[in-house]
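look at this stuff:

>
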Amino acid sequence: MDHTPFRPDAQDFVTDPYPAYAELRAAGRVHHHPPTNQWLIPHHADVSALLRDRRLGRSYQHRFTHEEFGRTPPPPAHEPFHTLNDHGMLDLEPPDHTRVRRLVSQAFTPRTVERLAPAVRRLAARLVDDFVAAGGGDLVAGVAEPLPVAVIAEMLGIPAADRPLLRPWSAAICGMYELDPDEEAAARAVRASLEFSDYLGHLMAERRENPGEDLISALIAAHDDGGAGPGGGRARLTEQEMVSTCVLLLNAGHEATVNATANGWWALLRHPGQLAALRAEPDALLPTAIEELLRYDTPLQLFERWVLEDIEFAGQRLPRGSEVALLFGSANRDPARFADPDVLDLARGDNPHISFGAGIHYCLGAALARVELRASFGELLARAPGLRLAAEPVRSPGFVIRGLTELRVQC
């Protein structure tokens, strides 16, 4: 392409990237983007396949040093962020990823999540009652944020008084997932990584003395009881993996749900006919509506993979050391997979959106996120039948993680 429609540093693109995605899909299956030195993958079938392709990895450090892989090591000043991030299972590869995910997944089985559903619905009802009683306000701060933060914090055993610390730390750390973050964003992420790690270190020391029924206590037990593996191998969970896993669960456990809630309501408010249909038949439409809202404006627009060995893809050689940008937002609007993809259709049945990923890094909390979204949307539909926009929403500045910082409504 002579010019690229992919301009993640441009405000008009961030506000509405979907026309640009259509241009990318029409122009081909893979595009090199010099400003970020990435290969852009815009089609649903290709994104789905590459998420499962083990010749690509979330990390390369299980096989190569930075120098061997042709990459420049991160600045030493950024090390606290990378230490925290690189030991979380989202950025681990097998066998470490397999070991850590197997331990943590026991807290996210369908049966466990189903047991949580009544408590999630009760919490959503309380939040919505308070929000409606106040006549509305910022839906992000009043409902979208506190529900998933409370749920994941309760699962982990974070004391209620400490929970206001979590979202600012999370937001600062997630700033490093944007494309080419500046030094100011890096400094915020480093500071949050140090503070978050220090906080969890103290909390874990306390739980060692007074274990509970929470996930942090279970992870401590896995660490303390694991010992060495067969033949003197790795312990079940290292101290750093415990901290990194808790941070990942807290961040991923609410960031996507907060942004999916805000994006979803903003989409509904722009499509009054669809909102009216949902209000008329919430029980029948809500399950497919949640999936459609996740597809229509996904909170995660791009997911990166490293090319671990030379591969041929769509007639293009992708050399080892390349970075692939899988465009989730584009894949979810691909007309080759979705009929009328730019139409919001809350009754859409065939909806294999890719918002939770695929392959070994498929979102561990997808079932919990769905429970939370159905609870909050269901309560707002029931208790705020006149909910309407009060002011133009404020969009988050980032592109990779897509959401709103404020959505003011009246009830």
Remarks:
- The radius of gyration is 21 Å.
- Confidence is low (pLDDT under 50) at residues 227-233.
